[in-house]
Each structure stands twice: as C-alpha cells, then as structure tokens.
Design brief:
GO biological process, one term (chain A): proteolysis
CATH architecture of the largest domain in chain A: 2-Layer Sandwich
CATH topology of the largest domain in chain B: PmbA/TldD fold
Number of strands of chain A: 23
Structural class of chain B: alpha+beta
Mean pLDDT of chain B: 96
Low-confidence stretches of chain A: none
Number of domains of chain A: 2
Largest interface: A-B, 76 and 79 residues
InterPro entries (chain A): Metalloprtase-TldD/E_C, Metalloprtase-TldD/E_cen_dom, Metalloprtase-TldD/E_N, Peptidase_U62_metallo, TldD, TldD/PmbA_N, TldD/PmbA_sf
Number of strands of chain B: 18
Keywords (chain A): Hydrolase, Metalloprotease, Protease
CATH class of the largest domain in chain B: Alpha Beta
Largest sheet of chain A: 7 strands, mixed
Pfam family, one (chain A): PmbA_TldD_1st
CATH architecture of the largest domain in chain B: 2-Layer Sandwich
Oligomer: heterodimer
Strand content of chain A: 35-45%
CATH superfamily of the largest domain in chain A: PmbA/TldD superfamily
Shape of chain A: globular
Helix content of chain A: 10-25%
CATH topology of the largest domain in chain A: PmbA/TldD fold
CATH superfamily of the largest domain in chain B: PmbA/TldD superfamily
GO cellular component, one term (chain A): cytosol
Order of helices and strands of chain B: HEEEHHEEEHEHHEEEHEEHEEEHEEE
Radius of gyration of chain B: 24 Å
Distance between the termini of chain A: 62 Å
Structural class of chain A: alpha+beta
C-alpha cells in the first residue's frame, strides 16, 4: 500500500463524509443496513463533482456555468437481483434509509456480515487534482478568444466560431461488503472548437477538440486553442468541396485515431459481460474462437496515463487494467463488473462504471484500441482500386444482438486507383461486427489514440471513453452515400 | 418499498426556494434573475426470464439560477436544493457574471410576454404502485412475450413510474409551477433461428396509469416485432421510395424542428436559415403544436422563459410559417419569442391521412423502414445518411425483412418528396404522426 492511496482516502473522506458528520467507521453501519436478510453483496458509492463550462460565441464569452452534484448510491444484491436507492444527502440517516430500501429487493434469508475494510491498491493513472483551479477566469476566457481569433484569421470563409472549455473535478469513495474500500479523484477537461464556413450560399461545419484527465492549465500549455481552431477550419473547408458519397459495398480505409470508434461499436459493446451473461450478444459463447482477421489485437486499457477513458480504480473499487479482448483474431475475454463476473465464474476486469451515484454500475469500456500492425499507411491506400478513406467520424451505434453497427463519417475521401481524389459528403457506414472484423486485411504501423472527445451511451448512462487504432483496411463495408 | 411524495408540499417547497434564490440574487446586486427548480421521484422495476432483476428507487432534485448584471450573465446549478446550497449557487452565478462579456441580446423575456393563464392541464396522475404490483405487471408483460412460439429468451421487461414538480420563477414576478407524471412499461425479446439472432421491443407510456396498454398487449407486440425480423436480407443498392413507420417518421419531424430552432438559426447552423415563407412540403401538409392540450405528454402553459405558450403553426400548407424561438434566439434574429424556450410541445400534423396499406400500394417497390441507427444527419446541410432495418416491399406488399443497409438523401428533398402521411398515428410521444412515404432515397445494401 502506497501513501498515495492513504492521501486520496483522507481527501475523499474530508470532502465526502466529514460534512455530514461521518467517518469511515460509520460506513460499516451503513453497510449493515444494506446487508439485509438474504443480501449477499452490498456497496456504498459516494460522489461529489464540480463541473465548469465556458462558451464563446460571436467573439465573446457570453455564457459560463457551474454545477455541483453529489450524493450516495446504495446497492444491495442477492444472486442476480439488485436493489438500488440513492440520496443527494450524505448523512447517517440517508445511509440507513437508502440501505433499508435497497435491501428490500429480497425479504428473507440469512443475514451476512460485511468483511473488514481493506484499502484497495493500484497505480495512479492520472494526478488526483482539481483541474479547475490551475487557470484563472481571465486565462480561460483568453484561451477561448484565442481560438476565435485564430479560426477567423485562418480563412475569410469562416462565418461563425464557437469554442468551449469544460472541466470536471470528481471525488469518489467506494465501500463494499467484500471489504473493498477505494477512493479516487478524477479530473477531466476538454476544449472544443466548431466553425461554420459559407461559400456561394453553401454552408458547412467543421469541429475539433480534445482533452483528458489533467489540469486545465495543460490545455493552455499545449496550445490546444490554436491546434483545434485550425483543425476545425481545415475540416470545414474540406467539406465545402465535398461531392456526393458513393453508395454500396466497397473497400474502406479508416485513418488512425478517432476512427477506432469502429472497434468500440463493432466489437467493444458486444464483449461487455452483461450482454454475454444474458446471451444477448452476437459474441456470446465465442471465447477461444476466431472472430477477427489474423493480426487483429484489440485491448481495452484503463491504465493509459491521463487519458479520457482511464481509471485508477473503477466504480466498484477494482483497479483499472489493460484487458486483451481479441488477440491475433481470437476472442480472449470479456469486460466485467463484479456482478457479471461472479455470475459467469470469471474475475472482475476493472470495467464497472456508472454515470453518477444516481445510476447503477455496468460493464463499460475505458480506452479501446487496436494494436499496431506492420503495413505502411501509403501502401494500404495504394492497394484500393475504388473505395472510401474516412478519417473523422461523428458517432456510432450498435445492435449487439444482430451485430449490426453503424458509424457516421464527418470527413471522408474517395480513393481511386490507389490515390485520394476528392472529399465526399458525410456518409454512414454499416456492417456486421464479427463479419467486418474478419474483413480487416491490412493494419498500419501508425497506431494513434483519439484526442479525448468520446462519450459512450448505454442504457441512458453516458461515460467518457477513448478509442484508437492504426490505419486499417476493411475489404468490404456498406457505404451509405447518395451516388448509386 | 415506496417513498412518501406529496406533490403539493414539494411544490410549495420549491416555490419558496425559488423565491429565496431570487431575493438573494437581488440582494447581491443582480439586475435580473431567473430560477428553475425541480424534484422528481420514481420507481423502476426490471424483470428477466421470470424473475426480478432490479428495483431502483429514484429521487432527483435540482436548482438552476441565472443572474444578469447589466448585459452580463452567469449561471450555476446544483443537485442539492438546501438553503446553504442555494446560497452557494447564487454566489457562484454572480461570480461568473463578473467575467462574462456583454451580450446585448441577453436578459429575461419581456415582462408583457409572461404567461397570465396558468390552467391545470391534467398531466399529473401519480400511481400508488407497490413494488410487488409493479413486479407482477412486468412479469405478466414478459410472460406474454416469452410465451409466443419462436421467442428464444427475454432481454427483460421494465416498468417505471414517476412524478415530479417543476417551478420556474424570474424577477419580473413570474412564478409558474407544474406537476407531472409519467408511467411506462416495456418488453424486449430475443428470437433466434438458423439465420441468426434478433432483438426488438415494444412499450407503452402515459401520463395516467389507466391509459397504459395492458402488459399482455405490450408483450405480445414485442414478440411479433422480434419474430418478424428473423431472416433479414440485404436489399439491393439503388434509388427507391422509402416508407418510414410512425416511430421513425417522428424522427423526421424532429429533424425539421431542429432546423427551425432559433439556436441553430442564429448560429447559421441550419439548412433552413432565411427560408421563412418558402414551400418546403407539399401544399396538403401542415404541422403545428398544441401546448395547452389537456393531458398531453408535453403540455405546459409557460415555456422555459416563463412566456405564455400558444398554438404555433410551423408548416402552413407546405410553407415554412414560423421558426421556433426563445426570448434569446428571437432577439438574436430580430424577431419575437414564439414561446418555445425548451422546444415544441405536442406537435400535431394537419393533413389528409392515408391507410398504411394504401401507402404501401402507392410505394409499389421499395423499403419500409422500422428502425434507424446512428447519428448521420447533418443539420447544417440537411444531408441524411443512416443505418436502417425494415422490410422489402414489392407490388405494394411486404415480402421479407431487410437489414444492414443505409438510406441516404437530403432532408429538403425528402420533405418536398413527401407522398403521403399514414393514418397509423403513434400517439405515445409528444410528436403524433403516422407513417411517411418519401418518393425516393438512395438505398445502399448488397
């Protein structure tokens, strides 16, 4: 046990428990309420978060907002059953009431005692700091104005610029009946620029952004205002010249980084433990089978330093891990929380996540990416007679049961005779997860991670995630353009 | 496992908190201030394969304060609406207003626009539901679906019931309160055969528990919807008419409303900028909202600015008749608020309705779309490209399920190419519409 965990625990206790007159010993009493007759596991999740957002429009920061959220969520489980209640008050009475309510899911059976608390170890994946305090309000406004100035100076066709700077300071504490005691302080910041360009009555949008789990001051030090302003303008100008996208099946080359949303949709969700326990995933029961081309290795990695999807410990107090999901094309593992791991006879993988104390945890992705291959990106493009090269996407979705997934390109080009020729309008690509992964025929050596913009939605809960991949070629995917 | 919730007491509490926040903001030097406060409580029950899976009790509250100091604005909010928290929120909003830039368009809506008529719209019908009764209903719903031949398993049935109170007050002296309730029951099932696995669902939702469909009807319908998807093929690539079923047609109405929303217009982020008065749809088609509808899913006498809502007509005989504006977006565009801060309320189509079989006949050969996937709609250009699933239609008759294809076009040409609206109106949400037949889109499949 390092002193880091003790310091985090002290901070979390001061911030979360002390204001309501609680100490760590009071959590044992709280757990006793939740460990009612027949309950075999219970946990308490304390959270407090401070969210700050600054928005620039028309060259002026006209709007800024600040939100304070917090409370405790209490979960009581018996086999596959879960009772859940929460309160935005953190007090002894709230723990008693929510605990009794949650444990009402079953009303008979043995009363089990909680295990004595053990502070969970694990390495820090980011600094446990308040990311909002490193910059003054003036500094934050200056960054946004800088983005506006640079975007407008970049091209006379730019007619609108909006930029935003957001940050979240989140403190969590987990105490579970299996003895788990864990604390974490999670910073998260993001800078975004969106522009509209107008030429001869045609309007297009471009946007860029990024961030991670670090102080806001790092965004300034890395000069992201300039980088994302220029990138947003570049993307908008490309789209001004875009022609209609082709329709039908064709080879698709995906650029490195953010197009890794392919992996998130085509395989990631299908490998979450809950869907596999219930047998509702197209990947259920397929561990050990070839589910992707040879050479395809996909990992979900919560341990990357300072990344948007990283977690030192997950929302059940399990340390974040790097889990290999597919190795050389063979399915090797699922992503698990404690409930699904227990019911499937597997080990938790540090993938339990929840949007807040007012939501139940589920197995979720962290940073999901494909490891680099050997191919030269230029060779990958050269190998395509006619197809699409997509480098940026708006978002995606999957039906985990049928395996059908989509993701929508926001910047793409036509490849003709091995050369990139013209930009094409945004189009949705659709495929079947297991089939599409079997059609990966070339893998670049240029692995990149995205810039830190992803939000994953599942059952109404949003959590920050990361994706990444090298340049990839899929021999065939359906491209949803208008040019048939 | 029930929580006591007295809506009248909650309402008085929220009103007094809103008033104390306004008073505090004034004391701290705000020239104007507005406060939104809410409290919601509910129960969510899910069952799967004949047994309870989760029981969730929810209780959410929040308070949001916006202050104006001269032409500067600051906002802050909290999920804790206690006295100390209100003070912190108001102080934070004031601190932010010291830093933001001047915005001549900012400020409350004009005082004379504040809602005067605040009738009870009959949208609050709490359900004295015990956990046991909720479990029983969800189990009955699931059983009705699981019992249908061909259904392999259940992905769960859920019942949720909630009620809440919302208060909006501002320094013009306006204070509006509304209580509301919503209850729903849904069922998701899995079917499997040699062609693969398919999942689908159905649901019922209502303000009044008595208006919910029976669990048996929902379960049986979910089974039917799931089974009909088995054996999906990919349609040919080409240009074909597309019939959007009512659940998907309401999405098209949503895209239209997104493009006439003031926020998109003043940011020039809409393909309908400067198009007021233009013909967008055939002349037999009109669309408007009925915010004062009794018992409507989105009924409210005042909008999020406190402005009196009214029956707006957005599309009048095919022409774009009105934008959808809040006080702020109206000022930015040099126009008047349409009472739409927070969006449109209870959108209704005014057009001759056609039996769905007749729409299929009119289509002849094409695709009936029952599901859409992904976000491929560009509000700036109107370009539309989404993943889809549904049925292939020949000679006006459904032939077989189709999946793993896209449909693409541009919203403007899709609206212009509207060939008919079905009489199969889906009345569950705040947008009521039947199927929409669009003359031609690009289908990309096999």
């Amino acid at each position: 046990m390092t002193s880091r965990q003790h310091l985090l625990l002290d901070d979390a206790t001061d911030i979360l428990l002390a204001p309501g007159g609680l100490g760590l010993d009071d959590l044992d009493a709280g757990l006793d309420h939740a460990m009612g007759a027949g309950i075999d596991y219970a946990d308490l999740y304390f959270q407090r978060s401070w969210h700050e957002g600054w928005v620039l429009e028309d060259g002026e920061v006209k709007e800024a907002s600040y939100n304070i959220d917090g409370g405790v969520g209490v979960r009581a489980m018996a086999g596959e059953k879960t009772g859940f209640a929460y309160s935005n008050q953190i007090s002894g009475e709230a723990l008693a009431e929510t605990g009794r309510t949650a444990s009402g899911i079953v009303r008979s059976g043995k009363r089990l005692a909680s295990a004595p608390r053990i502070l969970v170890g694990g390495e820090a994946r980011y600094a446990g700091v308040d990311p909002l305090t490193g910059l003054s309000a003036e500094d934050k406004i200056a960054m946004l104005k800088e983005a506006d100035r640079i975007a407008r100076a970049a091209d006379p066709l730019v007619s609108q610029v909006s930029a935003s700077l957001t940050g979240v300071h989140e403190v969590v504490l987990v105490r579970a009946s299996d003895g788990t005691l864990a604390a974490d302080i999670r910073p998260l910041v993001r800078f975004n620029v969106s522009v509209i360009v107008v030429k001869n009555g045609r309007r297009e949008r471009g946007s860029a952004g990024g961030g991670g789990r670090y102080p806001m001051s790092r965004l300034r030090d890395e000069n992201v205002a300039e980088r994302y302003a220029k990138e947003a303008v570049r993307q908008a100008l490309v789209n001004l010249d875009a022609v209609e996208a082709p329709a039908g099946q064709m080879p698709v080359v995906l650029g490195p980084g953010w197009p890794g949303i392919l992996l998130h949709e085509a395989v990631g969700h299908g490998l979450e433990g809950d869907f596999n326990r219930k047998g509702s995933s197209a990947f259920a029961g397929r561990i050990g089978q070839q589910v992707a081309s040879r050479g395809v290795t996909v990992v979900d990695d919560a341990t990357l330093a300072d990344r948007r999807g990283s977690m030192s410990v997950d929302d059940e107090g399990t340390p974040g891990q790097c889990n290999t999901l597919i190795e050389d094309g063979v399915l090797t593992g699922y992503m698990q929380d404690k409930l699904n791991a227990r019911l499937m006879g597997m080990a938790p993988t540090g993938n339990a996540r929840r949007e807040s104390f007012a939501h139940l945890p589920m197995p979720r992705m962290t940073n999901t990416y494909m490891r680099a291959g050997q191919d030269e990106p230029a060779d990958i493009l050269r190998s395509v007679k006619r197809g699409i090269y997509a480098v940026s996407f708006g978002g995606g979705q999957v039906d985990i049961t049928s395996g059908k997934f989509v993701f929508s390109a926001s910047e793409a080009y036509l490849i003709e005779d091995g050369c990139i020729t013209v930009p094409v309008k945004g189009a949705t690509l659709i495929g079947n997860g297991p089939e599409a992964m079997g059609r990966v025929s070339m893998i670049g050596h240029d692995l990149e991670l995205d810039t830190g913009i992803g939000v994953c939605g599942k059952e109404g809960q949003g959590v920050p995630v990361g994706v990444g991949q090298p340049t990839l070629k899929l021999d065939e995917l359906t491209v949803g353009g208008t040019q048939s | 496992m029930t929580q006591a919730f007295d809506a009248a007491i909650q309402q008085r509490l929220l009103e007094s908190r809103a008033e104390s926040a306004l008073a505090l903001a004034r004391r701290l030097g705000a020239d104007a201030c507005e406060v939104g406060a809410s409290v919601d409580q509910g129960i969510g029950i899910s069952v799967r394969e004949g047994d309870v899976e989760t029981v969730e009790l929810s209780r959410d509250q929040g308070i949001a304060v916006t202050v104006y100091v001269g032409a500067r604005k600051g906002s802050a909010s909290s999920s804790d609406a206690g006295e100390a928290s209100i003070r912190a929120v108001v102080e934070k909003a004031m601190a932010i207003a010291c830093h933001t830039g001047e915005d001549p368009a900012s400020g409350l809506a004009d005082a004379e626009l504040m809602a005067q008529a605040l009738p009870d719209l009959d949208v609050h019908h709490p359900w004295a539901l015990t956990t046991d009764r909720g479990i029983e209903l969800a189990l009955a719903c699931e059983a009705a679906g699981r019992g249908v031949a061909g259904i392999r398993s259940s992905d769960g049935a859920s019942l949720s019931s909630g009620e809440g109170v919302r208060v909006y007050a501002n320094s013009h002296g306006f204070l509006g309160s509304q209580r509301g309730s919503r209850h729903s029951l849904s069922c998701m099932l899995i079917a499997e055969n040699e062609t693969g696995m398919q999942r689908d669902y159905d649901y019922t939702t209502a303000r009044h528990p008595g208006d919910l469909q029976s669990p048996e009807v929902v379960g049986a319908s979910a089974a039917k919807r799931t089974l009909r998807r088995l054996g999906g093929r990919r349609p040919a690539t080409g240009r074909f008419p597309v019939l959007f079923d009512p659940t998907q047609a309401s999405g098209l109405v949503g895209h239209l409303m997104g493009a006439v929303a003031g926020g998109a217009l003043y940011r020039q982020a809409s393909f309908l900028c400067d198009r007021l008065g233009d013909p967008l749809f055939p002349d037999w088609f009109s669309l408007g909202e009925r915010p004062m509808e009794i018992g409507g899913m989105a009924s409210s006498p005042f909008d999020n600015d406190g402005v009196q809502t009214r029956d707006n007509v957005f599309i009048d005989q095919g022409r774009l008749a009105s934008y959808m504006l809040s006080a702020y977006s109206a000022r930015r565009l040099g126009m008047q608020s349409t009472g739409n801060a927070g969006g449109a309320r209870n959108l209704r189509i005014d057009a001759p309705l056609t039996a769905p079989e007749v729409l299929l006949e009119r289509m002849g050969r094409g695709v009936l779309v029952t599901e859409l996937m992904g976000q491929g709609v560009n509000g700036v250009t109107g370009d539309y490209s989404r993943g889809a699933a549904g049925f292939w239609v020949e000679n006006g008759e459904i032939q077989y399920p189709v999946e793993e294809f896209t449909i693409a076009g541009n919203l403007e040409s899709m609206f212009r190419g509207l060939m008919g609206v079905g009489s199969d109106t889906d009345t569950r949400g705040s947008i009521h519409t039947g199927s929409w037949l669009i003359d031609e889109m690009t289908v990309a499949g096999g």
